[in-house]
Amino acid sequence: MRKVLIAIAALLLTIWIWNRWPQPVPDIPTGASLPQAHAPAGLRFALIKTGDAETLQAFTYAGGSLFRTARINHIAVLVEHPQGRFLFDSGLGTEAEKQFETMPFWAAPFFKFDNLHPAIGQLAAAGVAAPDRIILSHADWDHASALGDFPDAQVWVTPEEKKFVDSGEPPTVLPVQFEFPPERWHLFELSSGPYAGFKRSLDLFGDGSAVLLPLPGRTPGSAGLLLTLANGQRYFFVGDLAWNSAGINGPHRKFSIASKIVDFDADTNWRKLLQVRGLLDANPSLHIVPAHDAALQDTIGYFLKWIE
Ligand SMILES: [Zn+2]
User: Fold this and answer.
1) Which pLDDT score is estimated for 1?
2) Where is average pLDDT lowest: 38-52, 55-69, 198-212?
């Protein structure tokens, strides 16, 4: 017992020192102004909160406190456009607890969740039809958990992300979540050309209101969704580019030990984070929404609340 306590104390001390180690001043690239969009009336989104958890702030960004907690959300974003409806990420699904049993024993304590409330049940209770496509920011277990709850929905990922899924393993990818007919996969190319400093993009409806952008790093094929509403408000859902808004605002890297364990390429992730921070500097009214930042998402509100 004494040895365990000493090991925990040593780990906490290491994290404390690590998080306080002076970092070089980051070189934030100059961002471009966002292009005009022609958002139609009727475009709206809702955050569906499917579960949550509590962790230490220090685990969400480098420099975070070891003595403060941070709340984590697991969300699906329901987007309705006159030309189509989709989920951006699926959140935790009805089988989440069973899927979680395939998590390695050492990882499970870090990823446990509470208040499971899958999107499919929330939609059914509200009489809202299930969307026919799910676009994944990336294929992590907590983003892909509910794919099985929407058996008729296409699953949209970049080709790079599909390769990552095919070779992925716990604790990031849980293969049990992808045991569905291969016809459900839809691999999308970012074929709409450059967009606000990004070399590639995909304009989903051809009006600039919903644009997918590459954010590799957390996984090779991670993507973000930039929505422009009819009232001109713009929201950039950046998946796990940062685990907390403080990461973007600082800017701060992710907590190094966790990043080393789970990020496919931590340095690329950091470069993308700085690019997004530059985009924010050039467009200060842009709302950047990391997938797990509960405090930020509380300010937006949750399904049944629509943002339009
Ligand atoms: Zn995540």
Assistant:
1) 65
2) 55-69
pTM above 0.85, yes or no: yes
Look up the CATH number of the domain holding residue 171: 3.60.15.10
CA of 89 to the centre of ligand 1 (A): 10
| End-to-end CA separation in angstroms for the chain | 55
Residue 29 lies in a domain: no
Domain count of the fold of the chain: 1
Instruction: Give the residue among 64, 111, 122, 115 at the shortest CA–CA distance from 249.
Output: 64
- Give pLDDT, residue 21: 67
According to the model, what pLDDT value does residue 113 have? 95
Residue 62 is predicted with a pLDDT of 82
Q: Is residue 28 part of a domain?
A: no
Q: How far is the CA of 2 from the centre of ligand 1 (A)?
A: 34
Expressed in angstroms and rounded, the spacing between residue 41 Cα and the centre of ligand 1 is: 31
What is the whole-number distance in angstroms between the Cα of residue 291 and the centre of ligand 1?
Answer: 6
CA of 113 to the centre of ligand 1 (A): 12
**Residue 220 placed within a domain:** yes
Per-residue pLDDT of 246-262, as tens digits, reads 999 989 887 777 777 77
> How far away, in angstroms, is 38 Cα from ligand 1 center?
30
Report CA(99)–ligand 1 centroid distance (Å): 15
CA of 59 to the centre of ligand 1 (A): 13
In this predicted structure, the answer to whether residue 12 has a pLDDT above a threshold of 80 is no
Rounded Cα gap, residues 79 and 46, in angstroms: 7
CA 239 to ligand 1 center in whole angstroms: 7
Question: Starting at the edge strand that comes first in sequence, how are the strands of the sheet with 154-157 ordered?
Answer: 44-56, 69-81, 84-88, 133-135, 154-157, 185-187
* CA 137 to ligand 1 center in whole angstroms: 9
Sheet holding 202-203, edge to edge: 202-203, 210-214, 223-228, 234-237, 287-289
Q: Residue 5 has what pLDDT?
A: 67
277 domain residue, yes or no: yes
**Residue-number span of the structural domain to which 158 is assigned:** 39-300
Q: What spacing in Å lies between the alpha carbon of 1 and ligand 1's midpoint?
A: 33
